[in-house]
Amino acid sequence: MEKNFRRLPAEWEKHQGTLLCFPHEGRDWPGKYAAIKWAFVEIIRKVTEFEPVYLVVKSEKIKTEVQELLKRAHANISNVRYIFQNTNRSWMRDSGPVVVQTHGGREALQFGFNGWAKYPNYLIDRQIPQAVAKTLGIPLTKVTYNGRQVILEGGSIEINGAGTLITTEECLMDSRIQVRNPGFSKNDYENVFREFLGISNVIWLGEGIEGDDTHGHVDDICRFVNPNTIVVCTEPNKNDKNHIRLNDNLERLKNVRLENGSKPEIVPFPMPGRIDFEDMRMPASYVNFLFTAESVLVPTFNDKNDYKALGLLAELIPGRQIIGINATDLIWGLGTLHCLSHEITAGT
């Protein structure tokens, strides 16, 4: 095995647990904070049926409040481990560490985080990787390239655990809007993915969905469900802005190859109907799902396509329980289950 070996396993591989962060204030869900607390409780309740939750909380006061809510909901509180750390927000997919396997065990990678190159209040969230790595007892490495720390959110990449990564040009390559790494080329990103994530093959899609304030995260449009199968969102309504965007991604995927040279199985996936709240379109998507040890938690939206999405995943991911989680309140924060969580890779 090479000296600097690193590998990011697929999300369906073995976890030590799932990282979540309980929101200590409701700024990301204005007017809905009370409902959001219970939505988080439900997520924790379902995850702890299958594996531990590593829960970031701001203080002992918040921990006590959370424990009381979990008891009322009859959650498995013995499966919750607490990490005390103040945060700006609760989106662990993007501000939390990426735990990779190495020749010596595991390593927590700290990519730079700049509030999606959009929001100014993110400096506290930069402390999350260190707090998590300390709790896990594993080394923390800052991801740098040509002398600068690389800005990257977990929601901007999707991997199959065998060497292939999918991302979008809108998120990583736009030179004007929400720029993560000014001057970076595709080759620069691919070098970073190779060195730090063990990626040998990168698939570039175009744009994400309308309403996504991350400017193109892939985890709302396209996911692996096994090393060879990709579900990709489609929108049949030609009057919807997502129709052209998603159709372009579908056409691109029809022509790609996996790391071993084979063609992946491409499965078109439904989108929920349009959801607007106040003056904004919500980036609702069924593929923002979360793998646990024995289940897949899937955001649902009280929509006619809910059952189609759940049924398709049941066919594509045998051996795991497919569980719908109502996300109609969560999506007001412009993200749902995958955005809020991060798997903690188990050791080799």
Describe this structure in words.
The chain has a four-stranded mixed β-sheet, with helices on both faces. The chain has a four-stranded mixed β-sheet with strand order 4-3-2-21. The protein has one domain (6-345): L-arginine/glycine Amidinotransferase, Chain A, CATH 3.75.10.10. It has helices at residues 33-47, 60-72, 92-95, 128-136, 169-172, 186-197, 241-253, 306-316, 337-340, and strands at 6-7, 15-21, 53-57, 80-84, 98-102, 105-110, 140-142, 144-145, 148-149, 158-159, 164-168, 201-205, 222-226, 229-233, 265-269, 276-277, 280-281, 290-291, 295-300, 321-326, 342-345. The protein is α/β, with parallel strands linked by helices and 348 residues long. The two termini are 13 Å apart. The chain has nine helices and 21 strands. Strand 2 (15-21), helix 1 and strand 3 form a beta-alpha-beta unit.
Write a compact overview of the structure shown.
This protein has 348 residues and is an alpha/beta fold. Helix content is 24%, strand content 25%.
Produce the secondary structure layout.
Layout: E1 6-7, E2 15-21, H1 33-47, E3 53-57, H2 60-72, E4 80-84, H3 92-95, E5 98-102, E6 105-110, H4 128-136, E7 140-142, E8 144-145, E9 148-149, E10 158-159, E11 164-168, H5 169-172, H6 186-197, E12 201-205, E13 222-226, E14 229-233, H7 241-253, E15 265-269, E16 276-277, E17 280-281, E18 290-291, E19 295-300, H8 306-316, E20 321-326, H9 337-340, E21 342-345
Parallel strand pairs: 2-3, 3-4, 6-7, 11-12, 14-15, 19-20
Antiparallel strand pairs: 1-5, 2-21, 5-6, 8-9, 10-11, 13-14, 16-17, 18-19
